[in-house]
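Re: your question about Transcriptional regulator MraZ

S., sorry for the slow reply, the queue was backed up all week. Below is exactly what I fed in.
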Amino acid sequence: MSVFTGLENYSIDEKGRLMIPAKFRKELESEEGVVLYMMKMQDKSILLYQKKEWEEVEKELKVLSDFKKEERNLKMFFYSNSEKVELDRQGRIMIPKRFLEDCGITKDVRIVGAGNKLAFWSPQNLEASMTEISQMDNLVTGEGVYIDGTLGGAGHSEGILLRLKERKLLEGSVVYGFDKDEDAINYSVNRLAGYGDKFRAFHRGYEAIVGYPYETAFRINEVGASSVRAKGIVLDLGISSHQINEKQRGFSFLGDALLDMRFSKENPFTARDLVNSYSMDELVEVIKNYGEEPKFRAITKAIIKQRAKKEIRTTAELARMVDSFYGNPREKMKARARVFQAIRIEVNHELDALRCFLDSFEDVLEAKGRLAIISYHSLEDRLVKQRFKHVTTEDWGPKTLMNTEPLRVPTFQAITKKPIYPAAEEIKGNARSRSARLRIIEKI
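Result:
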């Protein structure tokens, strides 16, 4: 079996062909028949499999049931995003146009050795992915149970697993991933399949980590919940690129799709339901408090007026209503982002889930266990900052009491004294990361 290592920089020609570097081509040509299979991934990478490796993937797919929704969807994801390709005499492959467009590859390509396969990235997306993985340096401190509470594209889970493997800690460790989004679960299971039983994914929100469903999850894995504490937990509270880019999910204000915005398809309540059923006062509260939108009342009135004539069904209809209150194109985009954020938070009960987790995470971590949270907007970051301050500082009560001992002693210490912001290089490669703030604490 071929093993691909290293990184090379190449370019796509005008016909969409990519020259495979000689060091990789030698391994490919050593395989009988040189039959290759290409697959587009949700993290905006393209994977190139040799025939034998792809046959192993297909063996796994064939045992999946068409009568179980999650397994059926996983098969559909694989086959709808894969193509058979050929290596020509000059050592080039033709990359499908839809793959290039979906993965943001225009000309320059980073060709990365990924063990038994090759991965193709745009320079920007590779930089963003590597940054996500490197953030896990501060979380991995030893063997144990690690939890990725917001799987998304599995970047953080992979980062943890890589660090564990590099430090020879993988044998005594396991990573559990949680996500409400069925697409994220299916994608993560595929991306991390090479780690076997060292990774398990659960179709639940991260708030389940601190409640009864968390115990159920560990029983499934034949580990007694009463004796299990996590060595590290990471939450990335941002919306995933996949959710934004999949227009039919109804998260993006740049396209036109049915208003949806649900993280989980099991949630019966959509953004369309919200904008067409909430009262004036309820809409004001959502747009004002969750979006911090200065023109909340005017926008709410416009929604009420429009839906009285006709149901508001699409993202484009809602975006146009928001635009009508702003003249500057940049301000229009900012207002759209605020209003869509507010509705998304309400539809998915995002702040309720965060409060639930923050109230109860202490008992889930073992001594010296670490919690890392990446927040993006002021509402969630304020909750994280306040809770972290509460568990990392002494409480002496009012000065008038003149206490000689603190009423409460710290149970955690701050690993990051101030939030860590993304570097300029990461923001350049991933504009959505510009507002990210990483905070880490460790249990005493």
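The two ends are 46 Å apart (CA to CA). Confidence is low (pLDDT under 50) at residues 212-227.

Happy to talk it through on Thursday.
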